[in-house]
User: Fold this.
Amino acid sequence: MRPDLARALAAGFLAGEWTQPGLVTSGAAVLGRRARWLGPLARQTLELYPRAPYDRPRELATNLATRPAAAKALRAKPLTQPLAATRMLHNRWRLPVLDDLGDLADRLGVGATELDWYADPRHLARSASDVALQHYRVGHRVAPSGAIRVLEAPKPRLRALQRRLLDELASLIPPHPAARGFRPGGSVASYAAPHAGRPVVVRLDLEAFFASITVSRVYGIWRTAGYPEPVAHRLAGLVTCVLPRSSWRAVPRPTDERLLDAHWRLGRRLAAPHLPQGAPTSPAMANLAAFRLDVRLDALARSWGGRYTRYADDLAFSGAAGWGTGTSRLLEAVEVIVRDEGFRLNARKTGVMPRGGHQRLGGLVVNERPHVSRADVDTLRAILHNCLRHGPSSQNRAGVPAWEEHLRGRIAWVAQHDPVRGERLLAAHRAIDWSR
Assistant:
């Protein structure tokens, strides 16, 4: 069966009565005649779909083309090409009902053309060299490891649409309990706390976390939420992007040759539709995309008598003293699961930390309770003291922008986990003459 005929029949079937006589009548309207093979095709369709699949017309068209009766329709052509009327068939999380693309456009306050422009279903952005035609501002920065991080920040109009999708749709879908970042009540402290006071703590990192999450996986999230195929496709397009070739050429390579392979893999990931690092929707969508990963790693940790949590791309496990001699087997099992779920471990950031040394997760020491290390607090106190004596500019050797606000942010980080020390540091900050 021709693809255009399969699509037309699928749309026609969904527009009519979902019975064998109804499907035959709808099919005859598409063909302009009542073909002899329509009856068997209608019967075979009802065997496959006892209920009308109003939320997945593309799937229906694909399966129509594989039915035995379709083999007799090789030369048939559709007389008309009706549009499939879609609607949500399930809504387990009570999300806003979006039955079709018109509902989505109305929800976002845009027209159909503008919706297509931002969703970019044909991935035209890959070849767009004119910055005015690109939806994202692309930048990069060098990570402490020497790796190059590519930042893709949506322009204001698209950012506003993504913010609405985050607030009104994505945030209503619950991630796995082990995901402790980018969710209500989540924090670095909640990520680290389950591992406090444990004999062995294991820290791992996922390579290029956001870029590893493909548009097909994001599409699957929206389908699982109940949105019909066309709506799920547009939603996936609105929260993913493709890095233009011209932008990738402007990204420098790492100076450390050991990072070149990972940099090459990053380029391959960014060339395909992916979650952009810099969009407001990406952290929440990444949590949802990692749901199966969290399920499997949590089950693995429990089977070892341990605990598991995740904060974005940081994975943490902890267990009893016996883990110290068996962590290699655990790490092998984790790597198998991570690869099976479409991710990759960053081997350079794997750490096995026994209680005898500093056990650090997310910048916090967890040997007894999650707290900022004394060394970090003492360093910050020394910087503030020297700012008071010699002037703030004398301590900003790296040329950090907004130096006063930068230090205040570091103080807030300490205060979040140790209010007493945080208040002392804040008092020292207030005593500084920032005009010097």
